[in-house]
Amino acid sequence: MSAPRPPSLPCLCASLRRTSRKLTQIYEEALRPVGLRATQFTVLQFLSLAGEVSQLQLGQMLAMDSTTLTRTLTILHRHGWIAKHRGKDRREWRLGLSRSGEKQLQNALPYWEKLQADLRTQLGNQRWDQWMQMTHDLTTILAEATIPN
Asked: How large a percentage of the chain has pLDDT more than 70?
């Protein structure tokens, strides 16, 4: 017997958060064999693409709150997956992917790629591309918007 279909939510925030929670569960299950959480994978993947950045830049670009980011970075640093050093300003941390982090990311990529391909197949190429573009656009709009409280 399949689970009942969830009702459509009228709130964009609630709807996207529900989707995000479900996606996170699925990605974490896929990444479990290599010992990564979805957030950890995201940070490693981002650093692989962006190169060295400040902790502030990383948090802003990933739209992560500082508590979650600090907790994630502490774990990644403890495993030796990120390189971390002081910036010009002693208060700033510069972060990059270490060699061990590159290896961990390479180990995780086949699991991530399989899940990506499975999800793309289930959604279809056109809807997949639309969702990827819409989430990027919405994030950009929200990052730049001044929405009244």
From this structure: 97
